[in-house]
Specification:
alpha+beta; Rossmann fold; Hnrnp arginine n-methyltransferase1; 3 domains; 7-stranded antiparallel sheet; 9 helices; binds S-adenosylmethionine; Arg_MeTrfase
Length: 363
């Protein structure tokens, strides 16, 4: 690594030793903003670049710097998510059915404000909606105002676990609406947020939307999926040690983009009732292969139960879902024989789901 005289190497980052010489307030804020970016302090970088823009007559000068910080703070999936009509309509129908006059609503994870706006439109007296990323919360506030619901909706720029009744919410909420689910359901810390909300922020008989969810797994044969997370020989060289750096847990990708052959039918591995505390769990699941073959990966997806007759899923057959699927490649390919029952372990620690094949085949 070549460092200039003004740079210093830490474990993994190159950080300017001192702010680049700054001549005026905007240059100083710019230099500190760049330093914050290199330290991965993106909220601070955003504030500093914005301050640089305010201090500078030609605000447009810092648009790209501000956008660099925004890109680090706001994942691209927000756009695909907001344009996922099936998701939006399922929530819209469930909220229209569950929320009405006289009710106070808590929406955890505002994003651009969709669920809060749907709740207000459905007649809620008041909606408190929270968002952990300041710049996203500020934009949601603008969207709420633009759509004429500023009187009904309060956007709080904080994590739900930091909210207090009497401070952020006038009283405990009658309804909780939320969509803080990743492709395998738990990865965005949904369970701790729901548990905290039930204890601290909701009435004892509050409606929780979604009220439950199921998680499914299916083993597939697919050398293409295997090659996303394993390496062997490359141009005559042995690259296999690099496989020690492969992911042990699932990653998000669309199963339909890869050649694959399902070997088992989908099996339910977990069922979550969001009205109850949910402890980490592990259990053995039985499956009967519908085909013989070599399993390279397990594909997982969820089904949310939003209200009577209204479900939402990111199953592989749902090609339009912005969520894609959770794919966990197996450390070793697993031979499965048609109609010969097998068992595997499914576990979750409240945030991450893991599937582990067991070698045994029940007698
Ligand atoms: C998947 S998006 C959903 C946005 C919006 N509710 C919708 O359905 O269009 C989740 C958002 O919630 C935020 N978030 C996740 N967990 C949160 C929490 N516990 N408290 C506040 N915000 C949270 C994330 O930063 C993200 O912007």
């Amino acid at each position: 690594m070549n460092l200039t005289a003004t740079e210093v190497a830490t474990d993994s980052l190159v950080i300017p030793r001192e702010p680049v010489e700054a001549t005026g307030p905007s240059e100083k804020a710019l230099a500190l903003g760049n330093e914050a970016m290199s330290r991965r302090q993106y909220e601070r970088a955003y504030d500093l670049f914005s301050a640089a823009a305010r201090a500078d007559a030609g605000e447009r000068r810092f648009r790209r710097e501000i956008n660099r910080a925004v890109r680090a703070l706001v994942p691209r999936w927000h756009f695909g998510m907001m344009n996922d009509a099936e998701r939006n309509q399922a929530y819209a129908r469930a909220i229209a059915r569950s929320v009405g006059a006289g009710q106070s609503v808590l929406d955890i994870g505002t994003g651009a404000g969709l669920l809060a706006l749907l709740s207000a439109r459905s007649g809620a007296d008041h909606v408190v909606t929270c968002e952990g990323v300041d710049v996203v919360a500020a934009t949601a506030r603008e969207i709420v105002e633009r759509n004429g619901y500023a009187e009904t909706i309060t956007v709080v720029s904080r994590l739900s676990t930091e909210l207090r009744v009497g401070v952020d919410l006038p009283r405990r909420a009658d309804v909780l609406v939320t969509e803080i689910f990743d492709c395998a359901l738990l990865g965005e810390f949904a369970l701790p947020a729901l548990q905290h909300a039930r204890r601290e922020l909701l009435t004892p008989d509050a409606t929780i939307l979604p009220r439950s969810a199921r998680l499914f797994a299916q083993f597939v044969e697919s050398t293409e999926l295997h090659s996303l997370n394993h390496v062997g020989e490359v141009e005559g060289f042995d690259f296999s040690p690099f496989t020690s750096l492969s992911s042990l847990e699932y990653f998000s990708t669309a199963l339909g983009n890869y050649r694959h052959r399902p070997l088992t039918d989908p099996v339910e591995i977990f069922r979550f009732d969001f009205g109850q505390d949910i402890a980490p769990a592990a259990h053995t699941v039985a499956a009967v292969p519908a085909e013989s073959g070599t399993a390279h990966a397990v594909v997982m997806w969820f089904e949310l139960d939003l209200a009577d007759g209204i479900t939402l899923s990111n199953s592989p057959s749902d090609r339009g879902s912005h969520w894609k699927q959770a794919i966990q490649t197996l450390p070793e390919p697993w031979r499965l024989n048609k109609h010969s029952p097998v068992e595997f372990r499914a576990s979750h620690d409240g945030q991450r789901v893991l599937v582990s094949p067991t070698i045994t085949t029940p007698g």
